[in-house]
């Protein structure tokens, strides 16, 4: 996401300081720290046990959204196994994967069984998983059943927010707490899971600080379960100062998004390292914005920042198309926005996968 000024990025790592624009107008926002956060020493010892990690935000080519991926009627282990084979072949060892509360609500036992099956497939291919609970991106109105067909030439036209509304009612908090607690408790000691990403892009879709209450609560629920894996919530829009400050001060491991060119991204890494905790870039790589494997990925390895690009196999999410430009006839864009492989498993760019393999020692 765009950084409006270098100062805005630099201020992020000093979470107890006010945004420079507002400091003269109001007291500094001091974020609460939920008890149970890992110490810096624990977080860094945890990270040091792993080789450098790289991978993608993963959804199977057959699924337009999280519901189609996870519900019993459409869950396809054979397709996932095949795609994970492609990932293993280029040395990817980490995938970030979105869950959905409505899939759990419709069939909690079956949902957890499918998660376990999914984790088995990942482990077969030597891939760790980072699961995401909540998400403020894209569309509201999630419900089980048949999902919409992709809109021609439109980026991520069927992706679902979770929960998709500003949570205020006690009954909504209650079922979301039950969901998070159930999944975390079931898999709290599962070594196939690297990390729990509690909330993707809180404040997106103009929610702003209205997402703060759910963000705080999900950290409380996670700390109550006390999983063996670390928890985090990635920073993504630097103007959302209070949300960023809370995320930075409560994440065991610092995670973030950056779709900007190399100079911008490298500067951000250096700023975020002031937190003295492991760094994982959970979203990058948008070719038309000059955030590419060739430019950014070598820097992330040099800086020992785990690298997770958006998109893996081109499919129903239509993320070969830019979020900035619709192609009404659905023809292939001159330059893919995201994704690494075509549906048949051949690379979009052989030079890219050769570089990825080299960086991963394959």
From TrEMBL:
<comment type="similarity">
    <text>Belongs to the glycosyl hydrolase 5 (cellulase A) family.</text>
</comment>
<feature type="signal peptide">
    <location>
        <begin position="1"/>
        <end position="20"/>
    </location>
</feature>
<keyword id="KW-0326">Glycosidase</keyword>
<protein>
    <recommendedName>
        <fullName>Glycoside hydrolase family 5 domain-containing protein</fullName>
    </recommendedName>
</protein>
<dbReference type="InterPro" id="IPR017853">
    <property type="entry name" value="GH"/>
</dbReference>
<keyword id="KW-0732">Signal</keyword>
<feature type="domain" description="Glycoside hydrolase family 5">
    <location>
        <begin position="153"/>
        <end position="310"/>
    </location>
</feature>
<dbReference type="InterPro" id="IPR001547">
    <property type="entry name" value="Glyco_hydro_5"/>
</dbReference>
<dbReference type="Pfam" id="PF00150">
    <property type="entry name" value="Cellulase"/>
</dbReference>
<keyword id="KW-0378">Hydrolase</keyword>
């Amino acid at each position: 996401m765009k950084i409006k000024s270098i100062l805005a990025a630099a201020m992020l790592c000093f979470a107890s300081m006010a945004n420079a624009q507002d400091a003269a107008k109001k007291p500094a926002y001091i974020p609460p720290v939920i008890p149970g956060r890992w110490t810096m020493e624990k977080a860094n010892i945890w990270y040091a046990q792993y080789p450098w990690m790289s991978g993608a935000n993963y959804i199977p080519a057959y699924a337009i959204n999280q519901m189609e991926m996870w519900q019993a009627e459409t869950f396809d282990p054979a397709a996932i196994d095949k795609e994970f084979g492609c990932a293993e072949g280029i040395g990817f060892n980490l995938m970030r994967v979105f869950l959905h509360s409505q899939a759990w609500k419709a069939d909690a036992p079956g949902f957890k069984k499918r998660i376990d099956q999914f984790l088995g497939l990942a482990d077969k291919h030597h891939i760790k998983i980072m699961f995401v609970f909540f998400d403020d991106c894209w569309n509201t109105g999630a419900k089980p059943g048949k999902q919409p067909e992709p809109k021609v030439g439109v980026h991520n036209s069927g992706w679902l927010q979770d929960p998709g509304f500003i949570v205020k009612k006690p009954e909504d908090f209650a079922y979301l707490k039950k969901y998070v607690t159930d999944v975390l408790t079931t898999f709290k000691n599962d070594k196939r899971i690297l990390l729990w990403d509690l909330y993707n892009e809180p404040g997106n879709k103009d929610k702003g600080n209205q997402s703060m209450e759910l963000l705080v609560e999900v950290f409380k629920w996670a700390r109550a379960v006390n999983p063996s894996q670390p928890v985090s919530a990635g920073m993504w829009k630097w103007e959302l100062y209070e949300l960023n400050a809370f995320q930075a001060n409560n994440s065991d491991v610092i995670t973030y998004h950056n779709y900007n060119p190399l100079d911008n991204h490298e500067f951000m890494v250096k700023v975020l390292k002031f937190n003295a905790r492991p760094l994982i870039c959970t979203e990058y790589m948008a070719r038309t914005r000059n955030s590419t494997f060739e430019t950014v990925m070598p820097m992330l390895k040099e800086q020992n920042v785990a690298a997770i690009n958006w998109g893996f196999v081109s499919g129903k999410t239509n993320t070969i198309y830019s979020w900035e430009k619709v192609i009404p006839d659905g023809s292939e864009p001159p330059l893919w926005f995201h994704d690494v492989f075509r549906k048949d498993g051949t690379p979009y760019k052989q030079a890219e996968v050769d570089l990825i393999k080299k960086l991963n020692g394959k």
